[in-house]
Design brief:
With 245 residues, the protein is an alpha+beta fold. It contains 8 helices and 5 strands, in the order αββαβαβαβαααα. A 5-stranded mixed β-sheet has the order 1-4-3-5-2, sandwiched between helices. The chain is globular and about 50 Å long. The two termini are 19 Å apart.
């Protein structure tokens, strides 16, 4: 807890500076962690050898009810998880979602104060240094996704702006579904097919709704790019913070 909000990067830098031990496990405050998941992250890093720089967990949304918008958010996260697993299998993963992950101490000692997506930045730095980034699908953490379109756009515009920012700093886009799809459209088509098997024909409606919301989030993020404005303290997507209430 801090007396003044200075942005997440400031807090991450304090953790990186003060943490001891060979492996640091990062967990967001608004997650629930399945028993044994931290042990599995650390074990994966140790078992796979010194060339592994980070290991990401498998994120599952708890808001998997019957409401239409919950299904939309679940569909987008299904695309994300399938992308992470497939890129991991291909040895091409360079991204962590940031809700729960482990990294090897010393590979990243500090991140720029203006960086929004600290997790994506850390994973990209580790990858650029020649280390592997892995996904452990048995290390599970649970989160709440946004519960309404407003919070979805608030959350996604922040993340998208953060990805544009990382490209500006490192000249690399993170290996998420959206950016991987531009480079490898056939890869994206196969991921879509696998996601559709989970959701059936109704998945078409979730795709269309998700695409519309994503477009609005991109437009919102673009406003900050045009204004060259990068606030350290972004609006909170409050409905994602109700996990413990």
């Amino acid at each position: 807890l801090e007396g003044k909000r200075e942005g997440k990067s400031a807090a991450i830098n304090k953790i990186l500076r003060r943490a001891t031990g060979d492996i640091i496990v990062m967990a967001s405050a608004d997650v629930r962690i399945k028993k044994g998941s931290i042990k599995k992250l650390v074990k994966k890093m140790i078992d796979e050898g010194d060339n592994v720089g980070a290991v990401d967990s498998h994120v599952i949304l708890l808001d998997s009810g019957k409401k239409f918008f919950n299904k939309v958010v679940n569909f987008t996260w299904t695309l994300h998880n399938l992308t992470m697993m497939q890129l991991n299998n291909n040895g091409r993963l360079g991204h962590v979602a940031g809700d729960l992950y482990a990294l090897r101490k010393g590979l990243v000692s500090r991140i720029p104060a203006e960086v929004i997506n600290d997790d994506a930045y850390i994973a990209m730095i580790i990858k650029l240094k020649g280390y592997d980034v892995l996904h452990e699908d048995e290390a599970i953490c649970y989160i709440l996704g946004p519960q309404n379109p407003y919070d979805y756009i608030v959350q996604r515009s922040r993340v998208l702006y953060g990805h544009f920012q990382i490209y500006k700093i490192l000249k690399r886009y993170p290996t998420t579904f959206q950016f991987t799809a531009f480079k490898r459209p056939l890869f994206a088509v196969n991921i879509f097919k696998r996601a559709m098997k989970h959701f059936g024909a109704a998945g078409i409606l979730y795709i269309l709704t998700g695409l519309l919301l994503e477009l609005l989030a991109i437009l919102h993020a673009s406003l900050y790019v045009i204004k060259r404005s990068s606030p350290l303290r972004w609006k909170l997507a409050m409905t994602t913070k109700n996990l413990f209430t």
